[in-house]
Amino acid sequence: MDFLKKYWPRAFKANSVVDLIIAIIIYLVIGIVAGLVIKLVSLIPIVNILCGLLGGLVDLYCLVGIVLSVLAFLKILK
C-alpha cells in the first residue's frame, strides 16, 4: 500500500465529494496535457514509437489514479 501512496498521493486524499472531483479533474488534466505534448513530439519520425509507449504509460497512470481515488472515497482502500 505504501507503493501506491508513494506514486499516487492525491488519490488517497479523497475524503469528500469535492476532494474526489478535484482528484479526478487533476488526473484528467494531466492526461490531456501530456497527450497534447506527446502528440506534438510524435511528429518527429524517430521518436514516434517512444511517444506511443510514453502516451500509453501516462494514460495508464491517470486511469489508475482515478480508480484509486474512487476506491479511497468509497473506503475500500485504507
The total count of strands amounts to 0
Helical residues, percent: over 70%
Q: Strand fraction band?
A: under 5%
Q: Whole-number radius of gyration?
A: 15 Å
Distance between the termini: 8 Å
Please write the string of helix (H) and strand (E) elements. Answer: HHH
Tell me about this structure:
This protein has 78 residues and is mostly helical. Helices cover 73% and strands 0% of the residues. It has helices at 2-7, 17-41, 48-73. The chain starts with a helix and ends in a 5-residue tail after the last helix. The model has no long low-confidence stretch (mean pLDDT 88).
The gist of it:
By secondary structure, the protein is mainly α. 73% of the residues lie in helices and 0% in strands.
Give the topology:
Layout: H1 2-7, H2 17-41, H3 48-73
Key features of this structure:
78 residues, mainly alpha, elongated
